[in-house]
Write a structure and sequence with these properties.
Layout: E1 2-6, E2 15-19, E3 29-39, H1 41-48, E4 59-60, E5 64-72, E6 84-87, H2 100-103, E7 118-122, E8 126-128, H3 135-138, H4 141-154, E9 162-166, H5 170-181, E10 185-190, H6 193-201, E11 206-209, H7 216-222, E12 229-234, H8 241-247, E13 248-256, H9 269-273, E14 277-280, H10 286-299, E15 305-310, H11 314-323, E16 329-333
Parallel strand pairs: 9-10, 9-12, 10-11, 12-13, 13-14, 15-16
Antiparallel strand pairs: 1-2, 1-4, 3-5, 3-7, 3-16, 5-6, 6-8
Helix pairs in contact: 4-5, 7-8
Bound molecules: NADP nicotinamide-adenine-dinucleotide phosphate (NAP).
NADP nicotinamide-adenine-dinucleotide phosphate (NAP) binds at residues 40-42, 143-144, 147, 166-171, 189-192, 195, 210, 235-236, 239-240, 257-261, 281-283, 321, 324.
Length: 334
């Protein structure tokens, strides 16, 4: 079977297809024929050697994928041949608080990932996918969607709350869909006016362009009568955190998720003077994934796919994600 690997050196130019023997499921394991995978910003960082310069190579890339069960090992009870499943980002985080073992069990990082024709996963590291979703749609869920879900529910998202989203990438567009479904009001920033218009069509109340309006923190406070937003989904990182701390209300919540804006300096004074809760988010557990899937099924939420690439063009999919021109998720059919 074919797998997309980072073989012996970092860099998108070193992505390569490798022929590997079909994996065989051992006790408690499930063999999945991968039908689709989706890309995350993390996959770019991993391929470039920024995420983990000590990554063991060759490594099959991709934390996210969905497919069909085609084999089961001894003792497997949760899944049967033909089931439609997705892998969990962390194979060892079933529920409860995150553990060391969970944090070191990530697909496409600590372990070989989903950009392969067949994978073997522990049955604890799989979820059933919502019946109404295609494999392409379900493949978008394990990282970006679970992260958005964990960040919003951890921040107390619900009716009467205002959530501020940064950009229109995978995490932010899922956060828009979930925050709306949970009854919250959504403000969004983007570097592109046409993407803002699309986010507003999807239910965001209003938006601003962070390139032409660098004072988006002031704008966010104005949208909340000077109070500030309840929750910030902080995907920018060091370069946006200062502004997020200004945009959030007294006693509000910042879910610290991403590093898109690169390096920057951060002054912690507003965090403490405003008694803000600053919560690091590392994707989420299988239990969170399952809770989120119930909302997706119940509310009829469809993941927003920007573009689908055939497996043979997976390296071009990485380039497309790198360009930042996407809205929502970039998918690869396998
Ligand atoms: N902690 C975790 O568990 C976790 C999980 C998932 C993702 N992440 C991180 O979260 C971030 C987003 O991930 P993703 O997969 O959603 O990425 P993505 O799909 O590649 O999103 C990129 C988009 O973010 C926007 N953006 C870029 N620079 C920005 C800036 N300075 N300020 C505001 N928006 C900016 C752009 O949207 P516009 O074109 O609209 O401006 C860009 O298209 C990444 O840093 C990723 O590593 C962390």
């Amino acid at each position: 079977m074919k797998a997309l690997v980072i073989q012996s050196a970092f860099g998108l130019e070193n992505l390569a297809f490798e022929e590997r023997p079909d994996p065989v499921p051992g006790p408690g394991q499930v063999l999945v024929k991968v039908c689709a995978a989706s890309l995350n910003y993390r996959d770019l960082l991993i391929a470039k050697g920024v995420y983990n310069p000590k990554l063991k190579m060759p490594r099959v890339l991709g934390s996210d994928g969905a497919g069909k069960v085609v084999g089961i090992g001894e003792g497997v009870t949760k899944f049967a041949i033909g089931d439609r499943v997705a892998g969990c980002f962390m194979q060892n985080w079933v529920s409860g608080p995150i553990s060391d073992a969970a944090a070191k069990s990530t697909l496409g990082g600590d372990r070989d990932g989903m950009l392969a024709e067949k994978v073997v996963l522990q049955e604890e590291g799989l979820v059933s996918i919502p019946g109404a979703l295609t494999f392409e749609e379900a493949a978008t869920l394990p990282c970006a969607a679970v992260t958005a879900w964990n960040a919003l529910t951890g921040g107390g998202c619900g009716p009467g709350r205002t959530v501020l989203l940064q950009g229109t990438g995978g995490v932010s567009i899922f956060a828009l869909q979930f925050a709306k479904a949970l009854g919250a009001r959504v403000l969004i920033t983007s570097g592109h006016d046409e993407k803002l218009a699309r986010a507003i069509e999807m239910g965001a109340t209003t938006g601003t362009n962070y390139r032409t309006n660098p004072a988006w923190d002031k704008w966010a406070r104005e949208q909340t009568d000077g109070v500030g937003v309840d929750i910030v989904i902080e995907v920018g990182g060091a370069g946006t955190l200062d502004s997020s701390a200004k945009a959030v209300r007294l006693g509000g919540h910042i879910a610290l998720i991403g590093v898109l804006s690169g390096v920057g300096t951060f002054n912690p004074i507003s965090i403490l003077m405003k008694a803000v809760r600053l919560q690091g988010v590392f994707v989420g557990s299988r239990a969170m994934f399952e809770d989120m899937n119930r909302l997706i099924a119940g509310e009829g939420i469809t993941p927003v796919i920007d573009r689908v690439f055939p497996f043979a063009e997976a390296p071009a999919a990485f380039k497309h994600l790198e360009s930042g021109s996407h809205f929502g998720k970039v998918v690869v059919t396998v």
